[in-house]
């Protein structure tokens, strides 16, 4: 199928209000497509760049309509995606069924209102410029960590309507993708504006790896919510794909722990999200000390066992790793 089947992808934001739920910000997704006899529908997905959380919607096309209107152009409107102010999104449009290379991609930034800011990296502070007051209303600004809700990352600062300076300095300890600047007028039911200066800087999340020599436990715990999976993988050398070890995949929800891990340079962690994957090999740089007595844990189909490190627990070259399914696969001395 030709890529020209997907003509355009248009994105816009709007306010959706209902009597029971009030008002919320939504993303409108509209597409223009040329009908094809093999095209059964369209799928649109919106991914948040800071958490990799994805929302998808699909639109099906009746078979009779496809046959009668082949070659004609059709406008498709998807249901609205719920978004938040100042959010960075990655939107994809694909055919149903999916054909290789037939896809449209867009990055979209939800407008952040009138609250402006700049980052002072030397002082590790976010300087917020509070908008001019409307009437006699004061204004609040704060830093928060956006998880299920935006949790306090510092005290809220109140700027009075008659304040001489409208610039507020908010210090931060670490630049995280879920660290956001939030502002709102000091009035009942005020709409809050959120802007996340480091939203696209997700590399710090994959580096949150810790090794405990005493217990030989390898753990990863991101400071921000992440949607995806974590697994152990075996990397034979530079430029070689890191092959996942069987039965080591875990959901990236909170803290992920692997007990009794040997400090082998080829043993790595692989993080898989909707936007791709990252690999971190914590033992290549020798920043973690080796345990006094080297032991390893072998992952099997139904259980884990700890054995003294030996050649039996270190896979031979023909077993690092196996592409074909094996009844039991032992990890490389972890």
TrEMBL record:
It holds the Pfam family IL17_R_N. InterPro entries: IL-17_rcpt-like, IL-17_rcpt_C/E_N. The keyword Cell membrane does not apply. Signal peptide: none annotated. GO terms for molecular function: interleukin-17 receptor activity. Residues 163-290 form the Interleukin-17 receptor C/E N-terminal domain. Transmembrane segments: none annotated. Residues 317-334 have a biased composition (Low complexity). Residues 302-334 are annotated as: Disordered. Keywords: Signal. This is Interleukin 17 receptor E like. It comes from Prolemur simus.
């Amino acid at each position: 199928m030709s890529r020209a089947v997907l003509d355009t992808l248009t994105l816009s934001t709007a306010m959706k209000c209902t009597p029971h739920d009030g008002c919320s910000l939504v993303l409108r997704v509209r597409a223009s497509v040329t009908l094809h006899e093999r095209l059964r529908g369209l799928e649109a997905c919106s991914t948040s760049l800071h958490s990799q959380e994805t929302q998808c919607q699909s639109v099906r096309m009746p078979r009779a309509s496809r046959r009668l209107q082949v070659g004609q152009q059709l406008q498709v409107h998807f249901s609205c995606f719920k978004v938040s102010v100042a959010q960075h999104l990655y939107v994809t449009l694909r055919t149903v069924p999916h054909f290789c290379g037939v896809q449209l991609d867009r990055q979209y930034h939800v407008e952040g209102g009138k609250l402006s800011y700049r980052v002072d990296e030397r002082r590790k502070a976010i300087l917020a410029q509070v908008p001019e007051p409307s009437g006699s209303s004061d204004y609040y600004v704060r830093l928060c960590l956006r998880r299920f809700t935006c949790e306090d990352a510092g005290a809220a600062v109140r700027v009075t309507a008659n304040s001489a300076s409208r610039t507020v300095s908010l210090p931060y300890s670490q630049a995280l993708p879920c660290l956001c600047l939030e502002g709102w007028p000091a009035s009942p039911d005020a709409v809050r504006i959120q802007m996340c200066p480091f939203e696209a800087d997700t590399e710090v999340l994959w580096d949150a790896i810790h090794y405990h020599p005493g217990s030989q436990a390898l753990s990863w715990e991101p400071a921000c919510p992440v949607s995806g999976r974590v697994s152990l993988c075996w990397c034979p050398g530079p430029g070689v794909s890191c092959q996942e070890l069987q039965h080591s995949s875990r959901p990236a929800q909170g803290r992920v722990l692997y007990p009794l891990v040997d400090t082998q340079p080829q043993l790595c962690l692989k993080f898989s999200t909707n936007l791709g994957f990252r690999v971190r090999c914590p033992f290549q740089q020798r920043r973690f000390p080796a345990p006094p007595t080297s032991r390893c844990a072998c992952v099997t189909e139904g259980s884990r066992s700890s054995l003294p490190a030996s050649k039996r627990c270190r896979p031979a070259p023909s077993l690092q790793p196996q592409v074909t399914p094996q009844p039991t696969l032992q990890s490389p001395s972890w």
